Structure to design on (321 residues):
């Protein structure tokens, strides 16, 4: 019997991601085709509460190409999700209608809690042996999710409205940021982290795991990779000491001076400093000294959730291809 082939698209505030993968009999995903593009759908949404025409057009143009790429594979189901920027936008219905009209894709706008649950499913699918209880951290463009997941218990999810785009647009206005802006950013992140974690159960014995673009970029920078190498990034152990050093380097440079830094993905130069501030401050606030990096996350969780829906005979969020 051939494996089930699935396609998933994550429309994020900063980045859009595509994954086509086979679901193997043992429940693992084997990637067939993957892409990601920094498209900044959430640009200025924090201020205007609207998706701009230019940002929507960028994403729709990308989705048209991905729709064709998906059509070249014999897939059994396709799911498309949107997160913080679309959740927050007053004109989200306009965007969703535009996507469907121009591409044929139907988009599921998921809540912060659902985003976190699917992200943890993706993380769980690739953890090293021996890791059981997990505190997951997912830093996005518009929000950050904390997911406490222990075997045999329901996950505990907290979402805060701070992401790399939102932090950059709201506070880090200068290039490079001023000391006052950095301090304000730290205070905001710390305050929201402590509020979100105040009623979390005990974190004793949990492994701190981070996913998404900021954390994987820092792992690539720590290793000075000349190109993105998932095998070297996935399950890399990123220490707080390394993060502090990278944060110092990034905050001390202009956006232009960050271009070409080893390991730093093109077009992430203007938000990576905000991302470094977020993870450094979160780890300080929680007393974490090391972050296990996961190259798996929401995309994989979207596919695993889609597989469940197909197995249960329910109609997935899909498109005719």
């Amino acid at each position: 019997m051939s494996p089930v082939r699935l396609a998933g698209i994550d429309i994020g505030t900063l980045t859009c991601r595509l994954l086509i993968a086979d679901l193997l009999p043992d429940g693992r995903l084997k990637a067939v085709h993957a892409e990601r593009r920094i498209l900044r759908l959430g640009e200025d949404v924090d201020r205007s509460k609207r998706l701009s025409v230019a940002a929507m057009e960028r994403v729709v143009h990308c989705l048209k190409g991905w729709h064709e790429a998906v059509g070249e594979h014999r897939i059994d189901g396709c799911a498309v999700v949107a997160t913080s920027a679309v959740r927050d936008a007053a004109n989200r219905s306009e965007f969703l209608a535009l996507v469907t009209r121009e591409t044929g894709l139907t988009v599921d706008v998921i809540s912060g809690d659902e985003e976190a649950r699917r992200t943890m499913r993706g993380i769980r699918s690739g953890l090293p042996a021996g890791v059981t209880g997990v505190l997951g951290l997912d830093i996005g463009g518009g929000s950050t999710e904390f997911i406490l997941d222990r075997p045999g218990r329901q996950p505990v999810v907290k979402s805060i409205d701070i992401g790399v785009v939102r932090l950059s647009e709201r506070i880090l206005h200068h290039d490079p940021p001023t000391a006052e802006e950095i301090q304000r950013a730290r205070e905001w992140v710390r305050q929201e982290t402590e509020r979100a974690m105040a009623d979390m159960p005990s974190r004793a014995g949990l492994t701190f795991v981070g996913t998404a673009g900021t954390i994987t970029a820092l792992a690539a920078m720590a290793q000075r990779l000349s190109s993105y190498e998932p095998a070297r990034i996935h399950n890399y152990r990123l220490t707080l000491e390394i993060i502090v050093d990278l944060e110092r380097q990034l905050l001390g440079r202009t956006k232009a001076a960050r271009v070409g830094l080893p390991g730093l993905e093109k077009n992430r130069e203007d938000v990576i400093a905000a991302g470094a501030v977020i993870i450094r401050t979160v780890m300080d606030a929680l007393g974490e000294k090391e972050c296990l990096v996961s190259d798996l996350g929401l995309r994989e969780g979207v596919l695993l959730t889609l597989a469940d829906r197909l197995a249960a005979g329910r109609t997935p969020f899909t498109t005719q291809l």
Q: What stands out?
A: Residues 3 and 24 are 6 Å apart (CA to CA). Residues 53-71 form the longest helix (19 residues).
